[in-house]
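Hi support team,

I'm opening this ticket because the web form for multi-chain structure prediction keeps timing out on my end. I have pasted the exact lines I submitted so you can reproduce it. The total is 276 residues across two entries, so I didn't expect it to be a heavy job. Is there a limit I'm missing, or should I split the entries? Thanks in advance, R.K.
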Amino acid sequence: MRTTRLPRLLLRLTDLAIGLLILATVLSVVVIVVSGSNGSGARLKVPVEFTPDRSTYELTSSVWGEGVIERAQGSAIFEDPGAGLFVGSAVAGIFIFIVPAFVVLLLLRRIFATMAGGTPFIGENIRRIRWIGWLMIIFGVLSQVVRWGLVWFVHSNVAATGLDLSLQIDQSSVQPDTTMIFLGLVVLALAEVFRYGAQLQTDSDLTV
Amino acid sequence: MVSIEVSLDRMLLERKMTLTELAERVGITLANLSILKTGKARAVRFSTLEAICRELDCQPGDLLSYQD
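Hello R.K., no limit was hit. The queue was backed up. Here is the completed structure from your submission:
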């Protein structure tokens, strides 16, 4: 069966993406190891809201007279939160973001290889596409669970006295990544299209 | 499971022809003709059946039979 050049191009692009992802992962691991051994040197920045003390400022306008700042937004900065938080976040990022991305790219590479070699409508590709769909759905849920956990961790470990302070991030702002979940469902539907295509391909191959 | 039996072996023996020779005459690959001979085919084109009957000088009924 004749194929166009597109599958081979997609194959090469996927190889490039895999190479870049491996490089990024290796660099991340090096940074983690170096930071872990030297102290992180990273700053933790937490978005906050607070009510400034009226005695510490004077707000006036030539047009409107005196004013008051009800709520202000800013960032709470912790200069050296320690390597544990930095390393923990980086390791979680690798397992939750990089590993699934790597698996999806490998699966895509195998699918494109079958396209370049003839037909994509084979049983193996149906399984690979289903895997991609489920990985996307799991990622859409898991990434937000981890984010919720990080938000809870920050809330549990930040307290202010002498200041009416609230964190601008809270658990209610964490929602499942519906876009990723929806796309995952679309990919699962695509797997059914491939299943039908594989059936037609078999019928065609066994027609004399 | 397909219940149509293909009696290609018997016809080839009667006409003293090999499968390879028939494939060349009919114009399909040996692999495809083997699929037909071994009963794995899901469908047969009329053009293929016509060519086989022409080369073996037989009727479609001589080649195909339905088994219940």
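A quick check on our side: The beta strands of chain A are 44-51, 59-61, 65-67, 72-78, 164-167. Let us know if the file doesn't open in your viewer.
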